[in-house]
Amino acid sequence: MEKSSHRAESEQRWVSRQVAGAQVSAIKQMAILSAEVEGAASLTWGVPSFRTPGLIRNSIKQKLDQDEDIGKYTLPAGLPELRNLVVEKHYRETGVKVDANENVLITAGNMQGLSTLLHVIVDPGDEIILTDPGFASHFQQIALCGGKAVAWPLDEQQDWQLDVEVLPDLIGEKTKAIIIVSPSNPTGKIFSQEQLIRVGEFALQNNILILVDDPYSHFTYENHSRYFNLASVESLRENLVYFFTFSKAYAMSGWRLAYVILPAELKRQALKVHDANLICTPHISQVAGIAALSHPSDYISDFEQILARRRSLICERLDRLPHVFDYVKPEGAYYVFPRLVAEYNNSWDFSTRLLSEARVAVTPGSAFGDRGEGHVRMAYCVPEAMIELAFDRMEAHFGVA
Ligand SMILES: Cc1ncc(COP(=O)(O)O)c(C=O)c1O
Predict the structure, then answer these.
(1) Residue with the nearest Cα to atom 16 of ligand 1?
(2) For 195-250, how does the pLDDT look when each residue is reduced to its tens digit (9 = 90+)?
(3) Which domains does the chain have, with CATH numbers?
(4) How far is the CA of 66 from the centre of ligand 1 (A)?
(5) By CB distance 3.0 to 4.6 Å, which of 77, 83, 145, 148 could disulfide with 122?
């Protein structure tokens, strides 16, 4: 016993302050805890239940035999064919023409892209503004680079929309960037064009960067026409970095594939970090990306329709528990972020008790910033049967109103 605590102490001595101060994200912590509870109904992790589409899988099967180089490194920026397809996609979606050599970097997911960019721009003490509630891992990534996350508080009474009025108060000498996720994880809010344009104006006035992390723009349901991509603003192209991931829209989360559109000088700097950490995004995943972008992708709207049905279902089921949860209807992505009406100490305590007492796993809202406390996040990208099971158990646990 004594020996092992001595070992733990000396191991701790080796751990840097930045890493010691960081935590495993509560999303993963809850996923790990729920895996230990047999038969738990889990609404924790935002992994879509969809299988990677057959077109992509079949193309890879063939390429594995035909392409002699598929098991080798690529150059750090990624395969030229994929980067060219990305240029076309980006032009179709934003109307902005970028250069495959100067402005496109293929990454192993948006997490790796974001982490790379944060390493490029953050010196110790530099500040990055992000919404609160916001995506839990962004807070961690900033801290791991020695930066400071500055919370941009959003108000549930205002349906979680961006409060642009407070932005000037958050921008200081050390501000390097603002991170935007729309539709938002965890609230599902789609930020309006008007608000986003104003964010862009502040960025230009103060010469700061906007980092647009985009996993969910294909899931906007009936709000499609309200979705606005800031990367489509030509005047922002030198102040904006756009991250798109294949994880959700193409059901490729395990392939680890994404791309970054960025100004040329930043790309040159980012390549140093990317190469030092990863050399390149897995070749086989890049080939899968070529298959994804060179075939029709009607399955994305099929996914969206299925998710729309799951959203209706989870909202109906939440409506039957008004004494437990109150919520703002999510506009996009596949999360709902209800406020706790039932008695609770804090959202972590509520979530762990719900898991042990009702065998339902949700993510505590505190993982998404101070404003997230008093809420839980439910991911409805799971099959309908899982949503039904989770809510049947919660109805049995809390009773129906
Ligand atoms: C806002 C946000 N960014 C990034 C990611 C992860 O993306 P990737 O799988 O491309 O690393 C997620 C996944 O949940 C997310 O919600």
Answers:
(1) 185
(2) 999 999 999 999 999 999 999 999 999 999 999 999 999 999 999 999 999 999 99
(3) 2-52+299-398 (3.90.1150.10), 68-294 (3.40.640.10)
(4) 32
(5) 145
